[in-house]
Design a protein that fits this description.
Shape: globular
Bound molecules: flavin-adenine dinucleotide
Number of strands: 9
Order of helices and strands: HHHHHHEHEEEEEEHEEHHHH
Number of helices: 12
Strand content: 5-15%
């Protein structure tokens, strides 16, 4: 018989990363955990099945004061890059859709304004977004332009007196069906460069339609957007976004967040699998006592731990202002590959029960597919790192 004489180390924070946070940060992280475990976990599968967004539920999330933790000033709570990343991990540990909703708002949308807005624009938009009274979306991808957005954007911006007129289409834009502000990236007909525009809800010519029947992140409301002569005043053009290089600076920031999210998704699946293995009996004993099951669990834990440690170092580089595109790209590519592997092993460990939504792991497996592809596929992030280490661009 296997010995049952040891206390199980069920906490997946195996290298005690949480201890790197200040006490206030740890407390906030625990509040996020409590909200996600008590309010989201028991009901999220119902929303996932119906591909509905839990508008009634996210009020509790908005009150946590976690939007803009990675930024300074403008009504943002601050707290630093490590706390920001660990919050992303904590959200995804319970549900990747809620983590994505939050990441689009706090990372992509607020990040675009924080990095590319003028002082006046940051003062205008960031405080209500930090309070999550106003919600943001980020529109870069188009129906025919995904990975090749840098050179291939077809949405246009034409200057007309004090306004800009936007025309084109977007696809996959998270939160866009209900967002108050959608950042639209479009190519200027004046200088051919990509510029960012804050399009406010209900602007004439701006139409969204919800995408249906996704097999991943079904709670996230992704939209097609049609821009038909959308008139935006010059004061809504992000004043510090002069070319795609500025868009890339936003992606550098948010890809780090996605790496943390991927680690959280893997961690959630692992924790469900570990709990299951400890209570599920076969051959008269818990399956956790079988060597091959322990092998799976330890491989999962190693994936999570290595991903989390890599992300923590990336957060430190961000904090010191040393993070470059290739640092974020490596983390995004590595952590999402490890996530996909980990959620697959978690599902395997649950046997047939792994495909039942009620056991949660199936949702993690499905959601991982979207995280794997968005914010730059593995191939594109690999090419960014490849270019950095060889000095040779191999995109085309
Ligand atoms: C759930 C979800 C949410 C999203 N949310 C948003 C959002 O809020 N805002 C937004 O703007 N976008 C969003 N996206 C879009 C996302 O960023 C794109 O899906 C992603 O960038 C990949 O683009 P694509 O899907 O068009 O694939 P494609 O670019 O068509 O790529 C298809 C395949 O070809 C490969 N490939 C392409 N070029 C190369 C190359 N040079 N070398 C090698 N391989 C290559 C890719 O790696 C991929 O495997 C979202 C996507 C999803 C799935």
């Amino acid at each position: 018989m296997p010995s049952a004489d040891r206390v199980a180390a069920t906490d997946a924070d195996f290298y005690l990363l949480e201890q790197s946070l200040e006490p206030a940060g740890r407390q906030l992280l625990h509040q996020v955990r409590e909200f996600m475990e008590k309010s989201v976990q028991p009901v999220i599968n119902h929303y996932w099945t119906r591909e509905e967004f839990p508008h009634d539920l996210v009020g509790g999330l908005h009150q946590l004061g976690i939007a803009g933790v990675g930024y300074s000033g403008y009504g943002c709570p601050g707290g630093g890059c490590l706390l920001d990343g660990m919050i992303a991990m904590e959200l995804a540990r319970v549900d990747s859709s809620i983590a994505t909703y939050f990441g689009v708002h706090s990372g992509l949308a607020m990040g675009s304004i924080y990095l590319c807005g003028s002082e006046e624009q940051k003062q205008r938009w960031l405080p209500p977004m930090a309070r999550m009274e106003k919600i943001g979306a980020f529109g870069l991808t188009e129906p025919d332009v995904g990975s090749g957005a840098a050179g291939g954007l077809t949405t246009t911006a034409r200057r007309d007196g004090g306004d800009w007129v936007l025309d084109g289409q977007k696809k996959w834009i998270g939160n866009a069906t209900f967002a108050d502000y959608t950042i639209i990236w479009a190519r200027s007909l004046e200088d051919g460069q990509v510029k960012g525009f804050v399009v406010e809800k209900d602007t004439p010519g701006f139409e969204t339609s919800k995408m249906h029947d996704k097999i991943a992140l079904r709670v996230v409301q992704n939209a097609y957007i049609t821009l038909d002569g959308v008139r935006v005043p010059e004061e809504n053009r992000l004043q510090q976004a002069d070319s795609f290089k500025d868009t890339a600076a936003v992606l550098r920031l948010t890809r780090a967040g996605v790496a943390w999210q991927a680690t959280g998704c893997a961690r959630g699946a692992y924790e469900h699998a570990l709990a299951y293995a400890r209570q599920r009996q076969q051959f008269g004993r818990p399956i956790a006592g079988f060597q091959l099951v322990q092998d799976l669990l330890v491989r999962m834990l190693a994936n999570i731990t290595s991903s989390a440690c890599l992300c923590a170092r990336l957060s430190a580089l961000q904090q010191e202002g040393l993070a470059e595109d290739h640092h974020s790209a490596l983390a995004k590519a590595f952590c999402t590959v490890r996530m996909r592997e980990t959620v697959g092993w978690a599902r395997e460990l649950l046997g047939g029960n792994g495909i039942l939504l009620e056991n949660h792991v199936g949702r993690f497996v499905a959601d991982a597919e979207a995280i794997y592809s968005y914010e730059g596929t593995r191939e594109i992030n690999t090419l960014i790192v490849g270019r950095a280490i060889t000095g040779l661009g191999a995109f085309v």
